[in-house]
TrEMBL record:
A biological process term (GO) from this entry: transmembrane transport
Family membership noted in the UniProt record: Belongs to the autoinducer-2 exporter (AI-2E) (TC 2.A.86) family.
Database matches in InterPro entries: AI-2E-like
Principal location listed in the UniProt entry: membrane
Membrane-spanning ranges: 21-38, 44-62, 74-95, 149-172, 214-247, 259-281, 302-329
Coiled coil region boundaries: none
Gene Ontology terms: cellular component: membrane
Keyword tags: Membrane, Transmembrane, Transmembrane helix
Record protein name field: AI-2E family transporter
């Protein structure tokens, strides 16, 4: 009898072990599937954020028009959307052909500029050794990394269409999506959710306002400076500098590269002057223009911003770096509203209720 009972217990132990193995294997497989889903869906989340920024821009401009005119909200919203497209169309009509011609010339001359830069770098022993390290297989690895960096979920054009349509839908019916998010929250926390969403809207509007003004100022200052120095294609370079200023830290460096290469066509001294001009403009933007405009916006630590850009670039490439700043602002706002403020209020309540 004891022998049969021992066999039965051993058999049950074996079944238990097999079940544990299957549970562990299933858990690992489920975790891997979730990671893959998050990895794929993360790019979709970034497109949702980009579409939300478009809607925030239109609504922020409509709010400003309402404050200036005291007109009805619907009329101001219509002026915001149509006015933006009309102004963009007029700018493209008057300056588009010139910018396109200069960009085309710049793209055609770019290989020649790179060859000239390579010759000047190779004239120094250290530069020659550095370029040799990037030849052959190393250069192929760099090319593959760059191609992967600029790869997106649906292609660049497809992503732009999706972002544009999301922005239009979010602009037309913002309350529909806001109420949908609030309804996902338990009833006792719905008012807090509304307050947090309003705070996020305020922060993003302030950030966008500062970025738009800073981009225009950077473009104007760059155009004036390059024209004074005598750099060709100054308008195209100024437009590139203004647009890339949307990406803090890395954008100005990317915009400076073609301008410095064009300066090398004349001389090394001109290239140094061009680099100094870009550094001076970027210093003014970082220390005077942006802080003055975005006084009410959440303060983003520079080191944390760089870490966020590197992480987002590794996860989602160029789109991640472009949206790293608003995502970081959203994250810090959520942490501040949902964690820091409640803790501070609880501590103040404890202090006030503490008996003397």
């Amino acid at each position: 009898m004891n022998i049969r009972q021992n066999k039965r217990e051993n058999k049950e132990d074996n079944y238990s072990y097999v079940e544990k193995v299957w549970i562990a294997a299933g858990s690992v497989a489920l975790l891997a599937i979730l990671i893959l889903i998050v990895r794929v869906a993360f790019n979709v989340l970034l497109m949702v954020v980009a579409g939300s920024l478009i809607a925030v821009y239109f609504h922020g401009l409509a709010d400003a028009i309402c404050r200036w005119t005291n007109w009805r909200r619907g009329i101001c919203m219509l002026i915001s959307v149509l006015g933006t497209f009309i102004i963009a169309g007029l700018l493209f009509w008057f300056m588009g052909s010139r910018i396109q011609q200069q960009v085309s010339t710049l793209s055609q001359d770019f290989p020649t500029l790179l060859d000239k830069l390579e010759q000047q770098v190779r004239s120094y022993p250290l530069g020659d050794r550095m370029l040799n390290n990037f030849s052959g297989d190393n250069m192929q690895k760099v090319t593959t990394t760059v191609q992967k960096f600029f790869r997106t979920s649906f292609g660049v054009i497809g992503d732009m269409y999706i972002i544009m349509f999301l922005g239009i839908f979010f602009t037309i019916q913002p309350d529909l999506y806001k109420k949908g998010i609030v309804r996902l929250i338990p009833r006792r926390g719905q008012q807090k959710a509304r307050d947090v969403l309003d705070r996020l809207s305020f922060v993003l509007k302030g950030w966008l306002k500062g970025m738009m003004v800073a981009m225009v100022l950077i473009g104007v200052l760059t155009f004036v400076g390059l024209t004074i120095i005598g750099i060709p294609m100054a308008l195209a370079l100024a437009v590139i500098a203004g647009l890339l200023n949307f990406i803090p830290n890395f954008g100005p460096l990317m915009a400076m590269a073609p301008a410095v290469l064009l300066g090398l066509v004349d001389s090394t001294q001109i290239a140094i002057i061009v680099a100094a001009l870009y550094i001076l403009i970027q210093t003014l933007e970082s220390n005077i223009i942006t802080p003055t405009i975005q006084r009410r916006m959440i303060d983003l630590p520079p080191a944390l911003l760089i870490i966020g850009q590197v992480m987002m670039g590794a996860l989602s490439g160029a789109l991640g770096i472009i949206l790293a700043t608003p995502l970081l602002a959203i994250t810090m706002t959520l942490v501040n509203e949902l964690y820091i403020k409640p803790n501070e209020e609880a501590e103040e309540l404890i202090i006030t209720e503490k008996p003397d």
